[in-house]
Amino acid sequence: MTPPYAVVDLDGVLADVSARLHHIEGGRKDWAAFFAGIPDDPPHPEGIAIARRLAADHELVYLSGRPEHTRGDTEAWLQRQGAPAALLLLRRDGDRRPARVVKLAILRRLAGERPVAVLVDDDPAVCQTAREAGFEVFEATWSRPQPTLLDAQERLGET
Question: What's this model's pTM, rounded to 2 decimal places?
Fold first, then answer.
């Protein structure tokens, strides 16, 4: 029998991005520097533990609003952290839709293939949108999104 999907976010769930938020604060945003810091993100042990637990009886999918051009750094980071192997789905380069819109579209696509047992995310807007669409959600609370990150995810459509 094919296991259901368990979908896990990266930023704020597995990766602590707080040290690179200064690149996107204020009026002038340095997205290149923000994304260049991906290799240096410390892990959130809680998130890594949940991913490992879910991988035992689900097909794990990492779903992030990070742009596609960050794939190499993101895959290398996941491997260095000992995160379970999984399908990695990233935002298309140039896609500026809010994270809640992008992620819901991907969740619906995945649900068309097989059941999605749970979404693990820290973004309240993503969690609410997924719940309203009928998905089971585990809201990660160990790293509440900072206003800078929420703005990037929802208004700017950058991560």
Answer: 0.90
